[in-house]
Design goal:
About 35% of the residues lie in helices and about 15% in strands. With about 350 residues, the chain is an alpha/beta fold. It has one domain (about 20-340): TIM Barrel, CATH 3.20.20. The chain is globular, with a radius of gyration of 19 Å.
Amino acid sequence: MGFKYVHNLPTPEEIKERFPLSDNLKALKKERDEAISQVLTGNSDKFILIIGPCSADNEDSVLDYTNRLIKVQEKTADKLIIIPRIYTNKPRTTGEGYKGMLHQPDPEKKPDMNEGVSAIRKLHMRVFEETGFSTADEMLYPENLGYLDDIMSYIAIGARSVENQQHRLTSSGCDVAVGMKNPTSGDLSVMLNSVVAAQQPHDFTYRGWEVKSGGNPLAHTILRGAVNKHGQCIPNYHYEDLFLLSLLYSERNLLNRACIVDTNHSNSNKKYMEQIRIAKEILHSRRHAPEIRTLVKGLMIESYIEPGSQKVGEGCYGKSITDPCLGWADSERLIYEIAENA
């Protein structure tokens, strides 16, 4: 039956005109970007923590959550750089289920991407304005980068996107840190090839234009676990995995060897409480081996106000409607422990 054209969506330029960033926030983002860059290039010993809900499903609860991070960041500022996860578009393994605020500004209503592009811009801006945190999101759709690129200080390329040419080339034109996840198969060479591609300049097509990119020296790896042919999760956060990645990096001519470890997804088999133990093990590996300490620059943790997850429509405030997350109490304790041991 083909497909039906529903709306001609506003351009990124139109959305930015509607929701402009203040000069103060532009200056703050520049500072945050530089601080993150210093960690990834090895010029700072601070540790990056990308933390927040699996999906940013509700503006009020996401703002509540990110405001709670302010006090924690103030107390750990000498050790940690906290970047809130504001994930507004979600890849779905089967294509079913809630695809994020971009698709459905209200999870209980029908998709409306025309409203969604405004909703995600508004959410990211509110977080930045109210908390001082520039944000992290996943680049699920490369052509949508411009809606948020002046607010995000961290961009993730997901396990199902990392081998895609357009994601790699678009990443090469980003001026902030871009993390490449290993694919669901776990093949580390795919992830590293993506970093190679993103660090180089390219000529390609983007939003109807022929464009040139300069290459992104802050492109790096994210370990998120894998799934074998039997559908079983295979973690890749253990000491041996981190040491292997360090060796594989040394075989390639890459700038700024850096890895962020995702403590959830296939590393935890989506058992959200395991994130606490996994984070502690990674910190132990960093203390044990200098090669791992210089490679692992941070963690990615799924965390919200209430622990676990719920179905759309159940109505529990601050509880994930996608993957289960750590609750706030456990998250706060864990952040302080990471700061003490990073």
